[in-house]
Amino acid sequence: MSRPGASWRGYASAAIVTVILPAACAKPARVQIGQVMRMGQFVLRADSVEVYSRAHQGVPLEVKVLFTVGGGNRFDRLEFAETVSGKGRVYLLAATGSRDRCWMSGIGDDQRSAYAVCNPPAGSRGFTLDIGNPYGEPKRFVLDLGK
Amino acid sequence: MRVSPAGVLFVLAMAGCSAPAPRGPCEGLVYTDAGLTPEQYAPCAKAMVARLDVLWDDLQSIHNKTLSKADRLRARQHCLATTSELARMWNQAGGTSKLVSMGWADTDWNRFNYDIDASRTFYLSMCYYGAAAPPPSTMEAVHVEARRFVARLR
């Protein structure tokens, strides 16, 4: 006869093995500007980053990352940028401690370019972009913006 | 109650045999660099125009003072339900970003998509806010243009 509570300890152990450990062990892929990120049939590459202020419009700091997008047709690429922004989610992490949601959008009729815009608090620095990959592994890319 | 493995297998097999829900005319459309092909998009286009015609009839009933208040309210509810149905079809076909914001190789289709979008948005506001007058002629013209366009399709 099993002791009371033993089955719950079994369930907890199973949960740790099947859910918590794999989640903790899934490391994001670290990439730099100019390196390729593969997401399903698409290829994303960060080309440049700008950090500027729009204080005259009430925005103290803005970070804009420009990307090149490859793969699929232009309608697929349009959906890709929307999917990464909406489902994958893009965050800007600052060494000063902030974490802000960014918005990504395709550019132009051919959708071969895209940009992500983030608005961190004033005085932030040491930026990395955390990009969710809704198309499979790795689950996240961490892009060092070098600023 | 004891459930036999054979019973479980039978239930699973029956679940697997159930017929899938029929696909709507705007579902599963595949885009190429040129947009959608007319052959692929035509059934969806016709279905969306048919919904606009229903909306138009509902709006006429909403503003028809000879009808009872209950009938006009019913027309408004039907109008709102139809706008939801049309919005679902619109989104299944690709949504505003693919249908309007992106240029297609055949600009006549772009114009058609724009006509549908303008009409449906306006009719929605007419249904929702219950404007005091029937739709003005400009929006009616856009709807009529879309109807003419699909009538020319084979």
Characterise the protein shown here.
The complex is a heterodimer of chains A (147) and B (154). With 147 residues, chain A is an alpha+beta fold. Chain A contains two helices and nine strands; from the N terminus they run αββββαβββββ. Chain A has a nine-stranded mixed beta sheet. In chain A, a hairpin with a 4-residue loop joins strand 5 and strand 6 (99-107). The mean pLDDT of chain A is 89. Chain B has 154 residues and is mostly helical. Chain B has one domain. In chain B, helix 2 (38-62) packs antiparallel against helix 3, helix 2 (38-62) packs parallel to helix 5 (107-129) and helix 2 packs antiparallel against helix 6.
Short description:
The complex is a heterodimer of chains A (147) and B (154). Chain A is α+β, with helices and mostly antiparallel strands and 147 residues long.
